[in-house]
Amino acid sequence: MTKEKMRVGLFVTCLVDLMRPRIGFAALRLLEAAGCEVVVPATQTCCGQPAFNSGDSRVARALALKLIAEFEGLDYVVVPSGSCGGMIRVHYPQLFDDEPAAAARARALAGRTFELTDFLVSVLGVAKVPGDFEGTVTYHDSCSGLRELGVKAQPRALLAHLPGVELKEMAASEECCGFGGMFSVKFGDISTRIVDRKCDNIRATGADAVVLGDLGCMLNIEGRLRRRGDERTRVLHVAEVLAGED
Amino acid sequence: MRSQAMFFKARAGDKLADRQLQANLGKAKTRFVEGRAQAVVDYDAAPGGDFEALRDAASAIRDRVLANLDVWLETFEDKARARGAEVLYARDGAEICRLVVDIARRHGVTKAAKSKSMLSEEAGLNEALAAAGIEPVETDLGEYILQINDNEPPSHIIAPVFHKSKEEVAELFARTHHTPKKDDIAGMAREAREVLREHFLSAEMGISGANFLIAETGSAALVTNEGNGRMVTTLPKVHVVVTGIEKLVPTLEDFSTLMRLLPRSATGQRISNYVSVLTGVKGEGDLDGPEHLYVILVDNGRASLVGTEFEPMLRCIRCGACMNHCPVYQSVGGHVYGWVYPGPMGSVLTPLYTGIENALDLPHASTLCNQCGVVCPVKIPLPELLRKLREKQVELKLRPWRERFALRLWGWVASRPALYGFAARTAVRYLNRRAGGTDRIRALRAAPDWTAGRDLAAPEGRTFRELYAERVGHEGRTKR
Description:
The structure holds two protein chains of two kinds. By secondary structure, chain A is of the alpha/beta class. Chain A contains 13 helices and eight strands. The longest helix of chain B has 27 residues, at about 20-45. Chain B has 21 helices and twelve strands. The interface between A and B is large, with 66 and 63 residues.
């Protein structure tokens, strides 16, 4: 590390805030273990993606400006979600076509925003993680992380630092789980059919846990596995596995 | 073709419950997806092969055409006329039908042999021909199967019977041809060929689409696997090409670049079984070819996209890769999309060509997973276009008021951290009560579609912001 610790803003995401705070704390632990000074702006809420994907760009712009203001004084923004990370990194700059000043701020922040595992590997070059997970895992590549941010090798590289973890790749790990945000609520039956294929592929590996980097996919896959009667396969965020118990 | 796109959601349930369809979709998907993946690997492995660079080159070619579409159309028109073709323009489906029927009458046509043309589906050309007393005969094997199955619509743009199994076709053939039921595809193809041969020889007119129009030579290019396209375009004395104005490419060189992509993206083939470049009428000394050639260039909504945010959609070369790779298409098949074009490209085109208010579900019937975008040979940002259509729906107030209100309310709350924190704490406690001390919620009135198919894991009990504020407080730290 350089003399000055880098100041990293953690955007936990609204779903983690609501449903799984432990993922937020796991991300915090990973960043601190890697030597970052982590700042968690207390006023953070949502990145605006639900509005953006629903076609309400006015609301999306308002929430984007709020997030930009909360994080732009920091060296980096780190997000334990490829989907929300992709929103900031890829879509924020597109939101302000007619507002050059806001667009410039959005671009500046976008360039400093990283998905958690991408940040740990690509920016920090982390070679050691605190977790102690033991068992076989299979990795689901969430769509936005994979196809917007190129998150594929990073989580696998980090998992490889855990001696107790054996990775068994599933078939079609890059195929969508069927969550799609509001899609799963608007077209629940189609979404169920899609996640069924994912569940089949997970089960076929026989892994103890499916590990992934997005809470949306996590809730979808876990919810379907349990409804199908699978009480055994654990569904874990990669941050939880890497950080271990608090 | 009248659009049934408004019934997408309603009809999806039937398709999900159709076990035969589900089995057929699974098989077809595997074949196309694995075929393309292997073709890309092989292309990249060959000397100088770079599939990504090829996609860039192809989309640049398509953009170059769209930037000066009028000029390329004129070039094509001049070159085609010089080779004896008559070039006509059709504004919409009705005009296509009128022009084709006029041509048929002029030449005393009673039977028209057709190779596959999605534009003829847009226009409902078969019905129009039949109404004018001209018998249309589909000669693409897939289209032929659909025609003898009571004019069923296609469910895929390159594989019209994507939704059918071999067994279903065998039964249909036995029933229609009064022959013993066959169990091999080769035997069935032979049977169809025998029936169709008679039509090829007796039809006075051939109708085809065109995969590309080549401006510098005035040619129409056909990419097929069955050879029927050659019969349709060379045997009858009259040949009518019906195709969209956006199908132009400037040069033969450009055509060859696109041909490196089209079969690989569509079926995983390095090259299709047949590639025909058709230029002009039968000349002196030519052994075959039509005596009369008409090229009908169709707008039907295309020109209105030029220069708009939806222009990239006009790059489309109709390979079908987006639907082959779409998790939604893979789950429900093509018919539920309700019009001519299914899958992601159809969910963009149907609202644009038939009216945004007539296809409200389609732009939302996508998880925006972008699998379509990464396989598209001409790099159409399909998820982005779907999202823009969602924006249009909001702007035009076409979304249900409850949805618009809920979004605005949520946005208003999320802009106010203190209020949002209170709402989040309340929501978490409510959800936990609904879980009743267990780790999951089995039914939630606020999200019935979600809990119909899956449980909702119970939240941990308190929000991250609550817990973090507490922790920071305990540690006596102040941050920002």
